[in-house]
Design goal:
Helix content: 40-55%
Mean pLDDT: 83
Number of strands: 7
Oligomer: single chain
Radius of gyration: 26 Å
Largest sheet: 4 strands, antiparallel
Structural class: alpha+beta
Number of helices: 2
Shape: elongated
Length: 167
């Protein structure tokens, strides 16, 4: 059984005689600690094994691997060899993380549309000439670049679609 931690109370428990569902402070829900902790990095995560059954009843985290969420590679840390349980936990985390990243990436397009609309409203109704002068060239270049990318991608999609339809 992994250690338990009371929310709002950092006292660790390693099982014992307390009432189930109650922390040291009384009334606080107790949460089981996970076996693994994933410290998120820009391209993935460092993977730590969480150990609570230590001789001093202290929480220990041992780095066991590094994961690249973009390409799915997993590298054991130092001379550590990953167990099948480690591999399974990392694979589960990686699948969930890639799902989160894909959803976040899809949201970027919608957020861009909203930002463009808000910027247009600001430029039309609130911006003074000095503020517009400060950002106009950069905005025009960014929008031109975005338009060129969107047109090229749309043309590629239509071209690919036509190739699949024609015998």
């Amino acid at each position: 059984m992994k250690g338990r931690i009371a929310r709002g109370n950092v006292g660790l428990r390693s099982g014992g005689a307390e009432k189930p569902g109650r922390g040291e402070a009384g009334g606080e829900p107790v949460t089981e600690l996970p076996n693994y902790y994933f410290r998120i990095r820009e391209n993935g995560a460092a993977v730590y094994r969480v150990e609570t059954q230590t001789r001093n009843s202290r929480l220990e985290m041992t780095e066991i691997a590094a994961v690249n969420a973009r390409n799915g590679s997993v590298k054991a840390h130092g001379s550590h060899e990953l167990s099948p349980e480690d591999d399974a936990a990392i694979a589960d985390w990686l699948a969930a993380r890639q799902s989160v990243l894909a959803a976040r990436e899809a949201e970027q397009g919608r957020a861009c549309i909203e930002a463009l609309n808000l910027t247009a409203q600001w430029a039309q109704s609130k911006a003074d000439p000095e503020a517009l002068e400060a950002v106009s060239d950069a905005l025009l270049l960014a929008m031109h670049d975005l338009r060129a990318v969107l047109v090229r991608k749309k043309a590629n999609r239509l071209s690919d679609k036509d190739e699949r339809v024609q015998p």
